[in-house]
Design a protein that fits this description.
Blueprint: E1 2-4, E2 7-11, E3 14-18, E4 23-25, E5 32-34, E6 40-41, H1 49-52, H2 61-64, E7 68-70, H3 76-94, H4 100-123, H5 132-145, H6 152-159, H7 163-174, H8 178-196, H9 201-207, H10 213-224, H11 228-236
Antiparallel strand pairs: 1-6, 2-3, 2-5, 4-7
Helix pairs in contact: 3-4, 6-7
């Protein structure tokens, strides 16, 4: 969040110019660079294990699945509220104590929840809104079973929709297609194993739910702009 002067962020091959008080959320594992520029800004690094490994927070995954630039196009009161949360996090960090990290994560999760609620309210402006309870259940199901063979037909049956209607509703609710959402969840799981384990790339691919190493490499590169091996080397060094 820039406090003084604009700031340029390059994330997943796209350039974002942030004005003062804009907020940029960069997804876990996304390739990005922050340009050295004159000014002041707040930059927080978050351990994504607390989010990706908690099924209770699965409803918040759409917020951190893709780069998100929150700017003046959003409601003024909403943006001001998020600015205050970021400022509160900075204040907590500057007065570090044994409980500081707990309170910071509480603030951060609250911010993600407000963003997701804002997105869902925007969905209501469409022709038909998906039922939150149904899709909350679907996201939790994906989070628990992403490593298995999950089909669109099976999820549609669970939610009580036809396949084609469910596909449209899923995209409306999450902002992306079912297959993209599933692949991103699998890639996020793979990223944690690439960083934190010594497993082979093949084992990681299988444990993440990919049917073959070729498919894993292709999808990983399409999402992260590099191969799993290249990604692992970048984090290692």
């Amino acid at each position: 969040m820039p406090l003084q002067n604009s700031y340029t962020v390059i994330c997943s091959g796209r350039e974002y110019v942030l004005s003062e008080r804009d907020i940029m959320l960069i997804p876990p594992g996304a390739l990005h660079s922050l340009k050295a520029q004159h000014g002041r800004r707040l930059i927080f690094l978050c351990d994504n294990n607390a989010l990706l490994n908690n099924p209770v927070l699965s409803a918040l995954y759409p917020v951190i699945s893709n780069p998100l630039h929150i700017n003046s196009k959003y409601d003024d009161n909403f943006l001001s509220m998020l600015n205050q949360i970021v400022t509160d996090i900075y204040t907590l960090y500057s007065r570090f104590s044994d409980m500081t990290e707990f309170y910071i994560y509480s603030k951060f999760i609250t911010m993600l929840a407000h963003i997701r609620e804002y997105q869902l309210n925007a969905i209501k402006c469409g022709e038909e809104s998906p039922r939150k309870d149904d899709f909350g259940m679907i996201l939790k199901y994906i989070d628990k079973n992403y490593m298995n063979d999950i089909t669109l037909e099976a999820l549609a049956d669970i939610a009580g929709y036809s396949k084609y209607h469910f596909s449209g509703m899923f995209k409306k609710y999450t902002g992306t297609s079912f297959i993209n959402f599933l692949n991103e969840r699998r890639i996020n799981s793979a990223i944690l194993m690439l960083i934190e384990s010594d497993m082979s790339i093949t084992d990681i691919a299988m444990r993440s739910g990919f049917a073959s190493l070729t498919t894993f490499n292709r999808i990983f590169k399409s999402v992260k702009d590099c191969t799993p091996s290249e990604f692992k080397k970048m984090y290692k060094y």
